[in-house]
TrEMBL record:
<protein>
    <recommendedName>
        <fullName>Cysteine synthase</fullName>
        <ecNumber>2.5.1.47</ecNumber>
    </recommendedName>
</protein>
<comment type="pathway">
    <text>Amino-acid biosynthesis; L-cysteine biosynthesis; L-cysteine from L-serine: step 2/2.</text>
</comment>
<dbReference type="InterPro" id="IPR005858">
    <property type="entry name" value="CysM"/>
</dbReference>
<dbReference type="InterPro" id="IPR001926">
    <property type="entry name" value="TrpB-like_PALP"/>
</dbReference>
<dbReference type="Pfam" id="PF00291">
    <property type="entry name" value="PALP"/>
</dbReference>
<feature type="binding site">
    <location>
        <position position="73"/>
    </location>
    <ligand>
        <name>pyridoxal 5'-phosphate</name>
    </ligand>
</feature>
<comment type="similarity">
    <text>Belongs to the cysteine synthase/cystathionine beta-synthase family.</text>
</comment>
<keyword id="KW-0198">Cysteine biosynthesis</keyword>
<dbReference type="InterPro" id="IPR036052">
    <property type="entry name" value="TrpB-like_PALP_sf"/>
</dbReference>
<feature type="binding site">
    <location>
        <begin position="176"/>
        <end position="180"/>
    </location>
    <ligand>
        <name>pyridoxal 5'-phosphate</name>
    </ligand>
</feature>
<keyword id="KW-0808">Transferase</keyword>
<dbReference type="GO" id="GO:0006535">
    <property type="term" value="P:cysteine biosynthetic process from serine"/>
</dbReference>
<dbReference type="InterPro" id="IPR001216">
    <property type="entry name" value="P-phosphate_BS"/>
</dbReference>
<dbReference type="GO" id="GO:0004124">
    <property type="term" value="F:cysteine synthase activity"/>
</dbReference>
<feature type="domain" description="Tryptophan synthase beta chain-like PALP">
    <location>
        <begin position="7"/>
        <end position="283"/>
    </location>
</feature>
<feature type="modified residue" description="N6-(pyridoxal phosphate)lysine">
    <location>
        <position position="43"/>
    </location>
</feature>
<feature type="binding site">
    <location>
        <position position="257"/>
    </location>
    <ligand>
        <name>pyridoxal 5'-phosphate</name>
    </ligand>
</feature>
Length: 298
């Protein structure tokens, strides 16, 4: 009997119907529980894809040092993947990331380098590039790496099509690196072009982990605007409130970007009837407990 390895159990996550949060107009609201991946987020898929595909091309070899800028989930997933495959992983991130995220990366053996909260992800990406140019490690660059969306074209998209038996009408996803929405959109549009792809970005001034409104010069090169039918702006309070609703009304403990995805899905539901609306629950909420976001509302 052949037993699976940890890599074999990435993906094939549950798709569950919400029971108490009403979508109205006979709509079905479905949550894709990516927190069920081994390292706890949707980023397990591209992390393993980027390492495996780079190995297959001969771009990296066991023992190499890899460098990546991350706001959290990709870093945790890459730290896990590097532990599985035998790489030294250096992760660069804003110091404002939650302590749970930093501790999880370190637990997998990754080395952390932080930039200031003010420098943010743009500063982390700049520093990663500087270190790579100095020869301190090899890049993965999730923002420009086609193996990122490829992982979702190959796994997430087909799973959603099969799990909904081809009935999906709307796909709602937060946009950070944009790998998830790019890969899923390509697959679903190949099955039925009328499936609506809805991306989420933060309102001006909002700071929502996992959702970004990139300055033009930092826009991920893997992003193709033609693959997104509609983009919604999500507010800070709106995302946090719907994150708490997921936990308290549906028993789904997730992060702020997942709350934003629920908020976006509910907006779509208000405009449609008899729709099958799928949204991505990007990760688990236990990595946000120290932020106080789940504390009783004042």
């Amino acid at each position: 009997m052949a037993f699976p390895t940890l890599e074999d159990v990435v993906g094939n996550t549950p798709l569950v119907r919400l029971k108490r949060i009403a979508a109205g107009r006979n709509n079905t609201l479905l949550a894709k529980l990516e927190g069920n991946n081994p390292a706890g987020s949707v980023k397990d898929r591209p992390a393993l894809s980027m390492l495996s595909e780079a190995e297959a091309r001969g771009d990296i070899h066991a023992g190499d040092t890899l460098i990546e800028a991350t706001s959290g989930n990709t870093g945790i997933a890459l730290a896990m993947a590097a532990a599985i495959k035998g790489y030294r992983m250096v992760l660069i991130m804003p110091e404002s990331a939650s302590s749970e995220r930093k501790q999880a990366m370190a637990a997998y053996g990754a080395e952390l380098v932080t930039v200031t909260k003010e420098a943010g992800m743009e500063g982390a990406r700049d520093l990663a590039q500087e270190m790579i140019l100095k020869g301190e490690g090899k890049p993965l660059n999730q923002f420009a790496n086609p193996d990122n969306p490829w992982s979702h074209y190959r796994t997430t998209g087909p799973e959603l099509w099969q799990q909904t038996e081809g009935r999906i009408t709307h796909f709602v996803s937060s946009m950070g690196t944009t790998g998830t929405i790019m890969g899923v959109s390509q697959y679903l549009k190949e099955q039925r072009d009328s499936v609506q792809i809805v991306g989420l970005q933060p309102e001006d001034g909002a700071t929502i982990a996992g959702i970004r409104r990139w300055p033009k010069e930092y826009l991920p090169s893997i992003f193709d605007a033609s693959r997104v039918d509609r983009i919604l702006d999500i507010g800070q309070y709106e995302a946090e409130e719907h994150m708490r609703r997921l936990a308290r009304e549906e028993g789904i403990l997730a992060g702020v970007s997942s709350g934003g995805a629920l908020a976006g899905a509910l907006r779509i539901a208000e405009e449609n009837e008899n729709a099958v609306i799928v949204f991505i629950v990007c990760d688990r909420g236990d990595r946000y407990l120290s932020t106080g976001l789940y504390a009783p509302e004042q």
